[in-house]
Design goal:
mainly alpha
């Protein structure tokens, strides 16, 4: 029994167009503080899903919200020269 395999998958599996460009990687790196702050906020929210939040939980949530907002403000207010050319993310 011969197995029929497509060559297309083997050729395009490691094609250059599937990798992020340098501009896209730079954009991700510039947005990393926002991403990490959002992860911290989600972590704080997840811990309160199955119980009534305590005062400590509420403080952690407020702190995480402030950090996420501050990270978004810092990203939005960065100088125009720091943006990535080419319109990447």
């Amino acid at each position: 029994m011969d197995h029929i395999v497509t060559v297309q998958d083997a050729v395009t599996a490691f094609a250059d167009f599937m990798e992020p460009t340098a501009a896209e990687l730079d954009a991700i790196e510039q947005e990393m503080p926002v991403i990490l702050a959002d992860v911290d906020l989600l972590d704080a929210q997840i811990t309160t899903l199955d119980r009534i939040p305590t005062e400590l939980d509420n403080r952690r949530l407020r702190r995480a919200r402030r950090r996420a907002l501050a990270a978004r403000i810092a990203l939005a207010n960065r100088p125009a020269a720091a943006t990535v050319p080419g319109g990447a993310a």
